[in-house]
Amino acid sequence: MAVIGYEDIVRVPKALLHDHLDGGLRPGTVVELAEAVGHPLPTTDPDELGRWFVAAADSGSLERYLETFAHTVAVMQTVEGLHRVAAECALDLAHDGVVYAEVRFAPEQHLERGLSLDEVVEAVLAGFAEGSAAAAAAGRPIRIGTLLTAMRHAARSQEIAELAVRHRDVGVVGFDIAGAEAGFPPTRHLDAFEYLQRENFHFTIHAGEAFGLPSIWQAIQWCGADRLGHGVRIVDDITTGAEPVLGRLAAYVRDKRIPLELCPSSNVQTGAAPSIVEHPIGLLRDLRFRVTVNTDNRLMSGTSMSREMALLVEAFGYGYAELQWFTINAMKSAFIPFDERLAIINEVIKPAYAKLLS
Ligand SMILES: O=c1[nH]cnc2c1ncn2[C@H]1C[C@H](O)[C@@H](CO)O1
Ligand SMILES: [Zn+2]
């Protein structure tokens, strides 16, 4: 079969579960919003700024990678800023051929200019609605679900979990914790996770990125996470040799079909993986874990959903069959209701791939 080109990948429907709103701004938007609110940037040239984000995030450490968010969060403190960033996010994903996306952000980081938590969420939801409507009008329909993130070093997770549940019928489909992982185990937020379980709500946890198996174990066995944000370090529980041997935790994750939200480029930048070619996604796919492909932070990685897939096509020789498998895995693992997931799989994803695979 002919090698799949970048434009071919843009055309196929894709599903994205792990994308940060404050990690996906257009560089030009950062420049304009920063000027409007008087926030100083390393440079005001959009192309240079785009390169600055990628270079600064290319640090080999999650903590240093996260420092770059100071500039995006600073320009997302007003209703106008939040609305614009969310609308552009929907448009950019749709034009990249993403048909379903879950986009997350941490409302508690957007209160510096006096907005309330509810006002922050409402501004973002309105932005997604506007961007999605514009994308549909341009012939690029996209469905966006919002995840609310609590910062793991802070102490507002219960409040954010309640905020998420309060907006469950108007677009918020899940909850997450993010931020520096080492020293901030998921069990710090056990109350919030137990509350969400009592509410029959969905959540994922950033775990197994900058810290290893104990973090993944806590996320699943103590906190009850539906999915793992990254989870890439599950490979620490797999002994490779002629026949790979799974430890108890890795076997549990695979047996229970717990989705892994893998983010290849982000992992290389933070040092969680040495390179794309050596990224554990190759092994995890071969072992049939429920692997999904994600962007994490498009601005900090200078990437897109199509680019992440193109990198995997190049590194591992994947074809349309593998791309469809990743996409259906993601759609099966989404936090929207089952019938809606099924409709996207059967009416959008499978017909598009059927044409290419026939
Ligand atoms: O990959 C990540 N790991 C941990 N935290 C992250 C990652 N990407 C973004 N974040 C943080 C920084 C953002 O400000 C926050 C909410 O989106 O989540
Ligand atoms: Zn993330």
UniProtKB/TrEMBL annotation:
Its cofactor is Zn(2+). Binds 1 zinc ion per subunit. It catalyses: adenosine + H2O + H(+) = inosine + NH4(+); 2'-deoxyadenosine + H2O + H(+) = 2'-deoxyinosine + NH4(+). The active site is at E209 (proton donor). Pfam families: A_deaminase (PF00962). The keyword Cytoplasm does not apply. It is an enzyme of class 3 (hydrolase). InterPro entries: A_deaminase (IPR028893), A_deaminase_dom (IPR001365), Ado/ade_deaminase (IPR006330), Metal_Hydrolase (IPR032466). Its EC number is 3.5.4.4. It comes from the Bacteria. The record marks H230 as: Important for catalytic activity. Residues 13-350 form the Adenosine deaminase domain. Substrate binds at H20, D22, G179. Keywords: Hydrolase, Metal-binding, Nucleotide metabolism, Zinc. Zn(2+) binds at H18, H20, H206, D296. One of its GO terms (molecular function) is hydrolase activity. Catalyzes the hydrolytic deamination of adenosine and 2-deoxyadenosine. PANTHER family: ADENOSINE DEAMINASE (PTHR11409). Belongs to the metallo-dependent hydrolases superfamily. Adenosine and AMP deaminases family. Adenosine deaminase subfamily. This is Adenosine deaminase. The gene is add.
